Every structure is written in structure tokens, then in C-alpha cells.
């Protein structure tokens, strides 16, 4: 039983970015599994740790791409990344303080992040790279910098 599934239509045309975006779906499904099976503590903490590791890695790569290709919407984009990190840290603290419903709140937030950031704002830079005809070059850069 999964909460959310990847569909091909979610692709922005850069395979390495798609693969990284799939990580958030995996984490949502892990969180959902622990909610359904009432595995609160350890499982949720592991999801938070992975989320922060994932976010740092992924945001850092997007930032490098924006610099490399002189992406004009960079500032607004990075603001959203910063908000994400703050929000996840706050949820982590709430979880540590054993506040109720943190898992469900986190799941909702990640679902919104997928819709409002990854499927909108991230797709804009994918479009920009497509227009500049550098999709293959970007993919090669990401593979080389794994
Ligand atoms: Fe992204
Ligand atoms: Fe992003």
C-alpha cells in the first residue's frame, strides 16, 4: 500500500533530477507506512534524517545548476528551499517533543511541496534548460557530480 506513486508525466526531462525527486516520494511512502502501522518514533526520526540529507544534497545541486546556467529565477527558488529546511527542522523539533499528529502534518507538507515546488517551480528551470537546449549537458554534469 503506497501513499503516492511516481508517474512519467512528473518528469522534467532531466533523468538525474527525476531520480532525486523520486526520493521524496519514497520518504512520503515510508512515513505513510509508519503511520498506518503505528510505528511512530524510530521510523519517523529516520525519515527526518533522510529528508534533511536529501534536501541538502538536492538543493545544493540545483543551486550549482542555476549558477552554471545563469538562471534568473534563482533567488526566489532558493528562498523556497530555505523555507523547506526551516519547516522540516521545526517538524523534527515537534516530533522530538512528542507533539501529536506530527507525522500526518509532515506527510501533508511533503505532498504540498511535491505539488507546489517540484511540479511547478522546479519544472520552470527544466523548461528553461530545455529552451536553452542544454538538457543533455545538464544530465552529463549531474552524472559527473554524483
Ligand atoms: Fe528539486
Ligand atoms: Fe528546487
Folded structure, characterized:
This protein has a single domain, classed as Four Helix Bundle (Hemerythrin (Met), subunit A), CATH 1.20.120.50. Helices cover 77% and strands 0% of the residues. It has 5 helices and no strands. Helix 1 runs antiparallel to helix 4 (102-131) and helix 3 (74-96) runs antiparallel to helix 4 (102-131). The mean pLDDT is 94. The chain binds fe (ii) ion (2 copies). One fe (ii) ion is lined by residues 21, 58, 62, 118, 122.
Give the total of beta strands. 0
CATH superfamily: Hemerythrin-like
Which hetero ligands occur in this complex?
fe (ii) ion
Largest sheet: none
**For the record, what CATH class applies?**
Mainly Alpha
Can you tell me the overall shape? elongated
- Unreliable spans: none
Q: Number of helix segments? A: 5
Query: How much is the radius of gyration in Å?
Result: 16 Å
> Per CATH, which architecture?
Up-down Bundle
Helix content: over 70%
CATH topology: Four Helix Bundle (Hemerythrin (Met), subunit A)
Overall SS class: mainly alpha
Termini Cα gap: 31 Å
H-E order: HHHHH
Total of domains: 1
Mean pLDDT: 94
The amount of beta strand, in percent, is: under 5%
Amino acid at each position: 500500500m503506497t501513499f503516492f506513486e511516481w508517474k512519467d508525466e512528473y518528469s522534467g526531462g532531466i533523468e538525474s533530477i527525476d531520480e532525486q525527486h523520486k526520493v521524496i516520494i519514497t520518504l512520503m511512502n515510508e512515513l505513510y507506512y509508519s503511520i498506518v502501522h503505528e510505528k511512530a518514533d524510530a521510523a519517523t526520526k529516520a525519515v527526518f534524517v533522510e529528508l534533511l540529507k536529501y534536501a541538502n544534497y538536492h538543493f545544493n545541486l540545483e543551486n550549482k545548476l542555476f549558477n552554471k546556467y545563469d538562471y534568473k529565477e534563482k533567488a526566489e527558488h532558493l528562498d523556497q528551499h530555505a523555507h523547506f529546511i526551516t519547516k522540516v527542522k521545526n517538524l523534527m523539533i515537534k516530533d522530538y517533543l512528542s507533539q501529536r499528529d506530527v507525522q500526518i502534518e509532515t506527510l501533508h507538507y511533503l505532498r504540498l511541496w511535491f505539488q507546489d515546488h517540484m511540479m511547478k517551480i522546479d519544472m520552470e528551470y527544466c523548461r528553461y534548460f530545455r529552451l536553452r537546449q542544454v538538457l543533455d549537458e545538464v544530465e552529463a554534469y549531474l552524472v559527473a557530480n554524483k
